[in-house]
């Protein structure tokens, strides 16, 4: 298993022909963030590898998740009558969130600046972004949390899925059209939530208890913005881009079945995880919300990464992800009525297994592509660039 190769020879050949194609029409991105990133990237040393920038931004998102897990393990810290998260934590999380967003915007510019753009860099960037979805959403949840003024853990579960489907929608577009249409919601959400973290430190979580307008609470604004952005912005734009490609006869997959294959595994993951919640004898989501979210988000990231590999290599997306097999077995066991403590154990075992499997997948894919393109993933130095001048001169 240690040397298992996830990328097939056909996919490696597809990566050789790959050319990056993306469209960004977001005014915030075009007129504010890109000029800012273009200026900022000049301060980065030219020896700094773009993938290292990407990974650093991802680690900041993970750190925020872990920091909030420590101060708000059960999402009750923002509820009335509970010990609140210290103000300095909100400031740290807000700054680090914006830094992570900035690094995610700078890495590609550093790649072009140092003439080191590779398909691996794009895969690495978007692959980590797919896993960042769960870290980002769950960390944001701590602003409102559970309780009478917050959002229930099941509503947050549904909101997480809205974000996950919004993310995979962009890569479904590219799988079918060959063009990555960057979603508007990403930039707006990152800037807005970074600002909200800082505001929370200044005004306190109690400020979010008050109605925003009439009886419309801030928690309602939070859910409305996420759902509204997905339903009225992300989804319509994705369908429009798809039908434009269909009209121009440029779709890469002509049958409806082949075009919709990337949605099979995410939909099955949603069905299985939701069935677990509804059938749970111990109310597993109420008992371990953070772990359950992480389990779902990690499985989703693995599914999305496989889709990204396929759309970049112009190969067929797998119909089902093998991680769904153990999840299916657990859901069957839950439906048959396992005892409460055993259900919690199954959740932790499944989450651990998913995490290790996804990390193994990521490490092996990076190693395969690094070897194929003869590059170091975290260095601008080429594998053969350390040859001595004498060896180079004699053609070794």
TrEMBL record:
Sequence similarity: Belongs to the CDP-alcohol phosphatidyltransferase class-I family.
Co-factor requirement: Mn(2+); Mg(2+)
Enzyme Commission code(s) on record: 2.7.8.1
Reaction catalysis annotation: 1-O-alkyl-2-acyl-sn-glycerol + CDP-ethanolamine = a 1-O-alkyl-2-acyl-sn-glycero-3-phosphoethanolamine + CMP + H(+); CDP-ethanolamine + a 1,2-diacyl-sn-glycerol = a 1,2-diacyl-sn-glycero-3-phosphoethanolamine + CMP + H(+)
Cited InterPro entries: CDP-OH_P_trans (IPR000462), CDP-OH_PTrfase_TM_dom (IPR043130), CDP_ALCOHOL_P_TRANSF_CS (IPR048254), CHOPT (IPR014472)
Function according to Swiss-Prot or TrEMBL: Ethanolaminephosphotransferase that catalyzes the transfer of phosphoethanolamine (PE) from CDP-ethanolamine to lipid acceptors, the final step in the synthesis of PE via the 'Kennedy' pathway. PE is the second most abundant phospholipid of membranes in mammals and is involved in various membrane-related cellular processes. The enzyme is critical for the synthesis of several PE species and also catalyzes the synthesis of plasmanyl-PE, a lipid required for proper myelination and neurodevelopment, from 1-alkyl-2-acylglycerol.
Enzyme class: transferase
Protein name as catalogued: Ethanolaminephosphotransferase 1
Topology within the bilayer: Multi-pass membrane protein
GO cellular component term, pick one: endoplasmic reticulum membrane
A Pfam family that the UniProt record links to this protein: CDP-OH_P_transf
Subcellular location: Endoplasmic reticulum membrane
Main localization (coarse): endoplasmic reticulum
Gene: SELENOI
Keywords of this entry: Acetylation, Endoplasmic reticulum, Lipid biosynthesis, Lipid metabolism, Magnesium, Manganese, Membrane, Metal-binding, Phospholipid biosynthesis, Phospholipid metabolism, Selenocysteine, Transferase, Transmembrane, Transmembrane helix
Transmembrane domains' residue ranges: 47-68, 88-106, 127-144, 150-170, 221-243, 255-279, 291-310, 322-339, 345-363
GO biological process: ether lipid biosynthetic process; myelination; phosphatidylethanolamine biosynthetic process
Domain of life according to the entry: Eukaryota
GO molecular function, one term: ethanolaminephosphotransferase activity
PROSITE patterns: CDP_ALCOHOL_P_TRANSF (PS00379)
Pathway noted in the entry: Lipid metabolism; Phospholipid metabolism; phosphatidylethanolamine biosynthesis; phosphatidylethanolamine from ethanolamine: step 3/3
């Amino acid at each position: 298993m240690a040397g298992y190769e996830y990328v097939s020879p056909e996919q490696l050949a597809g990566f050789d022909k790959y050319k990056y194609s993306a469209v960004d029409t977001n005014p915030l991105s075009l007129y504010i963030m890109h000029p800012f990133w273009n200026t900022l990237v000049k301060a980065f040393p030219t020896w700094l590898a773009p993938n290292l920038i990407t990974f650093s931004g991802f680690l900041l998102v993970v750190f925020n998740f872990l920091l909030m897990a420590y101060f708000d393990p059960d999402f009750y810290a923002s509820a009335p009558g509970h010990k609140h998260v210290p103000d300095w934590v909100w400031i740290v999380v807000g700054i680090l969130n914006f830094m992570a967003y900035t690094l995610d915007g700078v890495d590609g510019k550093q790649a072009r600046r140092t003439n080191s753009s590779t398909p691996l860099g794009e895969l690495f960037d978007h692959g980590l972004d797919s896993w960042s979805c769960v870290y980002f959403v769950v960390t944001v949840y701590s602003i409102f949390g559970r309780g009478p003024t917050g959002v229930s853990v099941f509503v947050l579960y549904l909101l997480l899925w809205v974000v996950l489907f919004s993310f995979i929608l962009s890569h479904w577009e590219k799988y079918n059209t060959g063009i990555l249409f960057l979603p508007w919601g990403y930039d707006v959400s990152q800037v807005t939530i970074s600002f909200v973290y800082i505001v929370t430190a200044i005004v306190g979580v109690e400020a979010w208890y008050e109605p925003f307008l009439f009886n419309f609470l801030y928690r309602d604004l939070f859910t409305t913005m996420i759902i509204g952005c997905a339903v009225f912005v992300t989804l319509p734009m994705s369908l429009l881009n798809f039908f434009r490609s269909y009209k121009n006869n440029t779709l890469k997959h002509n049958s409806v079945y082949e075009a919709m294959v990337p949605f099979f595994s995410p939909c099955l993951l949603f069905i299985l995880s939701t069935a677990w919640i509804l059938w749970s004898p111990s109310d597993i989501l109420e008992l371990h919300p953070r772990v359950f979210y992480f389990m779902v988000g990690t499985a989703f990231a693995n599914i999305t990464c496989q889709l990204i590999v396929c759309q970049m290599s112009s190969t067929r997306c797998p119909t089902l992800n093998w991680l769904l097999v153990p999840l299916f077995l657990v859901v069957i066991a839950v439906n048959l009525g396992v005892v409460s403590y055993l259900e919690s154990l199954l959740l932790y075992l499944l989450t651990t297994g998913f995490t290790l499997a996804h990390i193994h997948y990521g490490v092996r894919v990076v190693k395969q592509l690094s070897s194929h393109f003869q590059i170091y993933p975290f260095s601008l130095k080429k594998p053969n660039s350390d040859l001595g001048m004498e060896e180079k001169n004699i053609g070794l």
